[in-house]
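Below is the record:
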Amino acid sequence: MNVPVSASPAQVGMWITERMGRAGTAYRMPLLVTFEGHLDAPRLIEACEALADRHPVLATAIREHDGVPVEVPGLPPSIDVSLSGDLDELVREEIRRPFDVEAGPLVRFRLVRVAPARHVLIIMAHHLVFDGESKDVLLRDLAALYNGDPISPPSGTYADHAATERARMERLLVDAREFWRERWREPGEVLLPGLSCPPGGTARSRGAAQGAVHTFRVPGPLADGPAGAAKVSRFELLLASVHALLYAYGNEKPVCAVDMSTRTPEARDHIGLFVNELPVASAPSPRATVAELAALLHAELRLMYRFRPVPLARAVRGLRPRTALAPISLSYRRRGPEPRFAGLRTAVDWAVFNGSVRSVLHIQAVDGPEGLDVIMQYDPRAVAGVTQIAKDLTAIMNNPDSVIGDILTGDRPTFSGDSLAPSSAVHTGASGPADEIRAIWREVLGLDEIGDDEDLFDLGGHSLTITQIIARMRKRLGIEVSLDVFFDTPTIAGVLRSIEDAASEEPVGVDGGR
């Protein structure tokens, strides 16, 4: 690529979070493949190398160009070999090892020899170039390359599909704003068993936290709704069960952030980021059944699917950057077939935990022939009742004809944490670079007048607007302001105050003396 290619809408939001330093390991996506039998290691390494030729996005990076994140050539995926070692510790090491988003590589492979006839391939991908369906595509193509099977090149590249998605987003933007104007409401706090406020924040953290996991399986296929109800999918019944459970816990208008695929049929064979997180809200009737709630969500989702390519931050005025869209989030995917590597038995761990959680509770569901494998990722500082939540959710999913108002749970919690009071805007008089900064704000936002205390997000700004303002301040004024300043005080007055505070600080010696 000779000319910088704009990042996809999904990549922009994720890049912003990474740059703010609030993502932790939340965007690192591990995948483990175990091989039993005589593995031809050199051939597997060659297959890993060939993946980058087939999927150029694996050899890209994301950098800032004039305030806009762009896709640029990066280092190709790295491939390491470990002849021995503690597998669990090696996996933890790969999860902890950071990615250089601006230089790459954004995908790493490590082949571990556990025993003479047992090897494990650790695949670590950054979410910027990878999503849940990418796991299926990668393993399918890796097996074909290892086996020497014929494989047709995919049509176009991820950059091509990202350009198409940006165009779709622009076409839908006006209608999406109208759609969300009537639907969006701030989720607020959530009621869960054993919920308490984590140290230093509310129950909805602004950044990723070290997390824990609780796993369970709902065996067999989930039942459909009762006779006469609209046909609902297994995902919709799962989503309705989560909403019904939240209602039973005392949340009268539950909101759940859902990862929605933006893939088109043309992008099915591509590795990349094709996901947009959107909120799904409901107001369950206590007289309705869970299956009937699923039918209502089915209808709402059909309306929402049209606007999947539009990030919520572009459609909703005043929406501030955040690591988690809502305290409760859900992702669902159908597990792909196990890859077949010639002469080998394989087993895939599709849902390795990366150690971080972006919300209070994230429910990751992987649907396979044995049933629904559920991985509940949660902040252990905030949620103590995860076992009860799993028990209650399983009971609801197994009884979709249950009347919502009759659902009994092990606990009806009350929130014990105190919300942080919002900080008030600080008014700073015009001095120094104030006039130039105001001019940059007016230029980027396309407004003639902006008051010192007017909120950037209320004026129609969003994450990408912030990076453009920062880039122009850096280029024209030689001033660097962090993204956190805009997150915490998104006003001209707040930015000016942060600049004044930075200028007034005296240097401190290494021994703490002045």
Notes: The mean pLDDT is 85. The chain has three domains: 5-147, 162-336+351-406, 434-504.
